[in-house]
Amino acid sequence: MNWKQLLSAKRWGYEDRVPNEQFDARSEFQRDYDRLIFSSPFRRLQNKTQVFPLPGAVFVHNRLTHSLEVASVGRSLGRLFYNLMKKQHSNIDEEVPYLQEVGNIISAACLSHDLGNPAFGHSGEAAISSFFTQGVGQKYQEHVSAKQWADLTHFEGNANALRILTHAFNGKDEKGYALTYATLASIVKYPCAAIDGHVKGNHHRKKYGFFEGEKQAFEKIAAELGLKKDPTNPQGYLRHPLVYLVEAADDICYNIIDLEDAHHLKILSYKEVEELLLPLCGGEELRSRLDGLNDTGSRVELLRAKAINTLINGCAEVFANNQDKFLSGTFESSLIDALSPEIVAQMKKIEKISVVEIYNASAVVQIEIAGYKVMNALLEEFVPAYLKTNKTMFDRKIVAMIPAQFHTDKEDAYAKIRAVLDFVSGMTDVYAVDLYRKIKGISIASLD
Predict the structure, then answer these.
(1) pLDDT of residue 428
(2) Residue 115 half-sphere exposure toward CB, CA atoms < 13 A
(3) pLDDT beyond 60 at 274
(4) Which residues form the HD/PDEase domain (predicted)?
């Protein structure tokens, strides 16, 4: 793989258009960022759970604030990488004209990395998958192919993001959001189909990155950018190198910022947070500044900022110094796991504490259980009703609740199931709960 081809500004749906940025205020990749910021799927992230229940009296991050922060970190990673490459190769701008745009590409990809995640976080993903593995949806296995069944039984938000951005939804622009090929490829963490994913120890196949319906779309992107085929999977590809920086930005944010939220909610004390973050901030060198702050919230903010700065600089340096491995697809770990042993050990410690104290906190578990039940119940109503040939009056009324953009003219079971999943997975937490209550008769819709 080579950077000149990997950083293509060709735009999805406008492949014949030649970019002309001479008189434009924004580059092609800045346009990607702006299109995402103003999009409906991005706005809906404000009411989707990140970790802690929404809404609450105390501010905690939701999917939207998380995505904005990941985009900020991603832009810094890209800019630092470019500066390091510029030092190593003084004529890099002539060799790779778009390398200076890497920060913009990564920030756009970071904005969209969670677009496909359903309501209630990972619990929502689990609910959709279990509907087909353990629930009413088991009966549809005989109506779809093995590859399609793998999609349904392992719902993946990352693959759903690619679908949202490229699929021609009913009545919408058939070109999707018309993002650049470079941005689209930077979103796909695991460039393989569901049936080829979930391979332990394989960084390119840990999960999967595109549904069967978007396989041809991704193959088109891969061909344009010159992505290499995965030697362990002839049907899949090796990652676009920028995926590592998008992944690092996400890893940095949720590992560090979840601690800040946990402190706000009094799940972790200040002392506990300090012990976890201070080793990432230069140790006791920061002590005098911390002691000068009376407010523990301000101290945590300072620790968070310093820790993120350490991780950003470390990840950018690893990425710049291992270009041959990233371009050949032979770098087999995340960037964070390639940092110094001391930092890696501290990050593992943070991860362990987070699992025990944060992700298993009572409030978190409660929202996961409730979300699981809500999502499963919605699928039990919408999937059978939409797939029935001879619909009852109740079925027709249920189907009428699905917005026109999600309907499909295709008659095969997979296309119809996918249409319902597009609708349900796009719901916010608040909307999903409200619709569940109305369908179950717990609350009655008002005409106000």
Answers:
(1) 92
(2) 28
(3) yes
(4) 59-264
In a domain, 203, yes or no: no
**107, 74 contact by CB (below 8 A):** yes
Token pair 């970019």 is at which residue?
A: 19
Average pLDDT, the chain: 90
Q: In the structure, what pLDDT confidence band is assigned to residue 361 with cuts at 50, 70 and 90? A: confident
Q: How far is CA 167 from the centre of its chain?
A: 17
Higher pLDDT, 292 or 312: 312
| Over residues 404-414, mean pLDDT | 92
Query: Does 386 reside within a domain?
Result: yes
Name beta bridge partners: 62: 49
Q: For the whole prediction, is pTM greater than 0.70?
A: yes
409 in a domain, yes or no?
yes
In terms of phi and psi (left: phi > 0; alpha: psi -120 to 50; beta: otherwise), the region of 329 is left
Identify which of 303, 201, 290, 187 has the alpha carbon closest to the alpha carbon of residue 246.
187
Q: What pLDDT sits at residue 19?
A: 67
Q: How many CA atoms lie within 13 A of 125 on its CB side?
A: 17
Strand partners, 391: none
> Is 59 contained in some domain?
no
Number of domains the chain contains:
1
Enclosing domain of residue 370: 362-439
